[in-house]
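Example record

One chain of 124 residues, shown exactly as stored in the release files.
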Amino acid sequence: MGKIIEIGNTIRIEDGPARRKTIATAEVLDNRITAKHYQEGKSDAMGKKIVLGEDMTYLDYYGNRVFYIYGLGEVGIDKDDVIILPGDDSGREAVRTEERWLPVGVEDTQEKAQAVAAGLAGGE
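Predicted structure tokens for this chain:
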């Protein structure tokens, strides 16, 4: 990731490679399209095992960079130290909470990301 821009104490913007979804094929896993660590049987960008013919997510290191917007929010932590994100309906119970940077959005330019972030931060 590149630089981090903080707006107030609750919103941040980070630039980085775009996250892309596709079907895993031999062509997609070629090192000219995805980075060499994306291989069949290994984890994709979301931690899911890569299986040929199935959905996968990768970070496009060869394409344009994007700007990810994060908001500081509270998450639950269960008894096994697994994070419970807001909206999780798995039935797991939190034994404590923590503040974490949670994804809010992604924009293709820094200007757009800053406008969205400023709106989220109340115009700060």
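Notes: Helices lie at 110-120.
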